[in-house]
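Worked Example 4.2. Consider the chain below.
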Amino acid sequence: MFEKGKALKDCWGFIDCTIRGICRLTLWQRTDYNTHHKHHAVKYSAVKCPHGLIYHLYGPVEGRRNDNMLLRQSGLLERLENHASCFGLYSDPAYPVSQVLCSPVSRLELGFAEQEFNRPMSSCRECVEWGFADIIRLWAYLDYDKEQALFKTAIGRQYRFGTLLTNIHICLYGSETSLYFNCAPSLLCTYCNLKNKNGIEDTFETRKLQSDPKARWQKVVCPRT
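Applying the procedure from the previous section yields the following structure tokens:
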């Protein structure tokens, strides 16, 4: 990541929120109405890593809530401060700055050095949007708001399961994010914690990423137990 961003050496992921449209409610319509996007929705918060996997997903919450509320309710910063205080996340300007969370420099304080910091890191931060797009591209049903009805469909469970399946797909085939950062995703046996009869973790034979930017990580699936 440092080769792309040239600014943060200890950054391990990017955090952002996504808004997913839902069917309009009969009751409590104001609760889930997002005034910015002008439709009823729920909101999720996620952390995208350079190898393409989403390692943190929180939600759904009401669409009218802001990003900081999701961050506070998830308890992510407290866990990072307790277990990984020497590493940090990068976010957009809507988030606060802390020991484990960094955001772009305010426009009011921009000098040459600040611009050189903001420009490459903002380009890297776009990968979290690619992660949200991967989920919808692979599981188009999650983008059909007429079927995303609260109190009728388990929309939160469906989106979390879609995220899990997307991570598995990335473990097998890679993603645009892993190609951009030239960082191989986790092995499927490692991600799913699959072990053989002797209790030893199975391994993959992984081919190196080819020079073709459209090439994917090709892996041999571990044998079934």
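Strands lie at 11-21, 33-34, 39-48, 54-62, 88-90, 101-102. The longest helix spans residues 155-173. Compare this with Example 4.1 before moving on.
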